[in-house]
Amino acid sequence: MYAVYFGGFLIIFVLEKMGMSGSHPSPYGNFIPDVLVAAVIGVVSGWCIGPLIPIVGQHLARQSIMQLLLHVGILSLAVSSQFFPYSTEAPKRVVFQHTIWNADSSQILSSSYDFATTDSNSMLFVFKHAPELTRELHTDTNFSFHSVDKAHPDDWMGIFPVSFLFSTSFKFPAKPEFIMDQYKSFPVLFNHKPQELLSGGYRRIYLEFSLGSTKEVWVSVLNITGPLFRWSFANNKLPAPEKDGDGPPSYICRLSGASSENWTFWLEASSSEKIRIELGVIDQHLTEPQLKLKGLFPEWVDVTAYSSFRSTYLF
Fold first, then answer.
1. Is 189 in the same domain as 293?
2. Between 20 and 30 A from 221 (CA), which of 201, 231, 255, 314?
3. φ, ψ for residue 200, nearest 5 deg
């Protein structure tokens, strides 16, 4: 009885962890969670039924019974493979991000709709079952994995480290005109006052951060790379740096929610080398075109939608 309880708990635990592990690279990534779950269920089943085999073994050893079990197993596999894997109770999780790259408070460089999923079936599975969505994106339901533009990992900086759950994300061009109509100004970072030269070759950069006319800000992210020595956040102490592959170490600062006033802060550099700041602002307010796209997803899809304002600065 204890083996049954513990085995059931282990299976549920593995199922939850597989759901939290994110998507895996194609073409074999779709099968990794299924193989792991099947292996755990097989081990637990053998563990629970193993002590009964000596008792019922002589009855199960008949050829007719073995054939029956084999046929039932094959039939179960064939039938279960036809079941749809998602429902409103167990939805597919999709992240829909409208990425806006702005050069200053009033100029848009590019705009795109980015889609990613956190489970093993890629976004192509959703597009296959959502013809109205693909038509709205001006594409075909039969497009291939290689024919769609891929979103760059930097586009997802605003929700770091959630983006580690994505193996592949797709990008579709979006018209920026309606964004200009909705927002009078965009998030921007600028010098608050002239930089101050300190002894030892250090310099202090005074900055001001404006959220522009964003409406429902969830979080703002500053990704800082370069010769950063100190900053005015967190008692002037730098956190442990983040590093992506062979790239330089960077320091990430998150500012939660909106503010009625602009944020002012300073950064201290240890040399004259430029400091690079990547800014990402997540706005949960959805415009009419975004709401329309979100409404075109099937009901078995749980969509997290928002806008991400991105910009880059050198100081």
1. yes
2. 201
3. 80, 15
Same domain assignment for residues 106 and 144 = yes
Q: What tokens were used for 114?
A: 């980015």
Dist. CA 18–CA 5, nearest whole Å: 20
Are 197 and 232 in a shared domain? yes
Q: Is it the case that residue 22 has pLDDT exceeding 60? A: no
Amino acid occupying residue 144 = S
Q: Which whole number is the average pLDDT over 109-134?
A: 86
Structural domain containing residue 74? 1-82
Q: State percent of the chain over pLDDT 70.
A: 84
Instruction: Name beta bridge partners: 268.
Output: 204, 230
Angle at Cα 39 formed by Cα 35 and Cα 43, nearest 5°?
A: 175
> Among the listed ranges 142-151, 281-290, 306-315, which one has the minimum average pLDDT value?
142-151
Tokens matching residue 261: 């006033």
Mean per-residue pLDDT, 250-271: 88
